[in-house]
From TrEMBL:
Cellular component, GO, one term: plasma membrane
UniProt similarity note: Belongs to the diacylglycerol/lipid kinase family.
Keyword RNA-binding among record annotations: no
UniProt GO molecular function: ATP binding; kinase activity; metal ion binding
Keywords recorded for this protein, A-Z: ATP-binding, Kinase, Lipid biosynthesis, Lipid metabolism, Magnesium, Metal-binding, Nucleotide-binding, Phospholipid biosynthesis, Phospholipid metabolism, Transferase
UniProt-recorded name of the protein: Diacylglycerol kinase
Higher taxonomy: Bacteria, Bacillati, Actinomycetota, Thermoleophilia, Solirubrobacterales
Annotated GO biological process: phospholipid biosynthetic process
Domain DAGKc: 1-130
Source organism of this protein record: Paraconexibacter algicola
SMART domains, per database record: DAGKc (SM00046)
Cofactor(s) required, per the database record: Mg(2+)
InterPro entries on file: ATP-NAD_kinase_N, Diacylglycerol/lipid_kinase, Diacylglycerol_kinase_cat_dom, Lipid_Phosphate_FormReg, NAD/diacylglycerol_kinase_sf, YegS/DAGK_C
Amino acid sequence: MDRRVALIVNPSSGGGRALKALPRVEARLRELGVPFRSEPTRSLEHGAELARAAAQAGEVAVALSGDGLVGALAGALRGVDGAVLGVVPGGRGNDFCRSSGIPQDPVAACDVLAHGVERDLDVGDVDGRTFIGIASLGFDSDANRIANEAPARLGNLVYVYGALRALAAWKPARFTIEVDGATRTFSGWSVAAANASAYGGGMFLAPGASLRDGLLDVVTTADIPKRRFAASLPKVFKGTHVDEPSVDVVRGREIRISADRPFTVYADGDPIGELPVVVRAVPAALKVLLPESPR
């Protein structure tokens, strides 16, 4: 199958990981005989512009970056006839790759660009803005903000660092969520709407979430003492935290979320909205190159 690739590179992604990987990625694409060109981004918005231009030119728009640029490109290509997204991991978390089965090694991921299969995947929508992974808020709002401000040298540990720093100052909030018309109010830690299974550099917050079922997994954590919450955090890396009595998971197409104090909603590692919000699943909104046997 003949494919032409526009490699959209975020130079600052993962503390420069994408830029460091670029020569090896380009060399592998040449070995595979995949025609390509490389374009550096100046911002997420610029990356979205490059992706739209690539789609118009009949090229696969490929994010060599972390999840933030992947989400931005997904938003740019969502619903565009003939548009195809490819992903080569180049960030700190690379959770979309982890959730979808794309190799975590950027050179190995090039084989998916050459031989992968185009699959229709769902995206999520927060008041008109697109995400591809997990949108979350509450305790996650504080942890994400701290992680994004953390030194790049921490690598994947920025997410653990963010959680531990946020834990010290956290006070429970009262959330109201409406999932497909069913309303619930509770005091607790967080609310998340998951299109994919993982976030935060390998935390399987929603281990049962699927990118192809037309639904979002809504994960809520009710109020428990800080000590118990901290003790349960390591379980998120295996997805076994969902067995805790404080954690509830339901599925739905439309989720309305509000709280008793302001929170920023984060998705794909970046701020995407402010409460109150409406989060929706958008089925089969995006074609993505995946391995022949995706998760």
